[in-house]
Design a protein that fits this description.
Elements: H1 22-53, H2 55-65, H3 68-96, H4 102-126
Helix pairs in contact: 1-2, 1-3, 3-4
């Protein structure tokens, strides 16, 4: 059996060794936006459920969802949707085998960030 004495051996390289890269940060944000989209979906379901329960309860929930705070939350949810979709598209492109070199990957990361902001603003203005 292999010797598993790890007391005097270093752990695998971690944040002390590697600086955060744009591709790793965008990957982390893709996970965060996925979780945020789940929270936004719960809010929308709550909104629909309030409409089904009755007009008094709907007025309370609708007042919250259409307030300034609700508008900010829904815009951030829209941005999360745009970011998550563009990040997923980037991963599909990588799965094909395109854009895997560092320079192109970083450009695609910047494109995902900028594109998600621009797309979210366009959709918010149109809708």
């Amino acid at each position: 059996m292999a010797d598993v004495n790890r007391g005097d051996r270093p752990l695998s390289p971690h944040l002390q060794i590697y600086r955060p890269q744009l591709t790793s940060i965008t990957s982390i944000f893709a996970r965060i936006t996925g979780i945020a989209l789940l929270g936004a979906a719960v809010l929308v379901v709550w909104w629909f459920a309030a409409a089904a329960i009755g007009p008094e309860y709907y007025d309370v929930v609708n007042g919250l969802m259409t307030s300034f705070i609700g508008d900010v939350i829904m815009f951030l949810a829209l941005w999360s949707l745009c970011y998550h979709a563009l990040s997923g598209l980037r991963h599909l492109i990588w799965d094909i085998g395109i854009g895997l070199d560092i320079e192109t990957a970083e450009k695609m990361g910047i494109g995902v960030i900028a594109g998600s902001v621009i797309l979210a603003i366009i959709v918010a203005v149109i809708v």
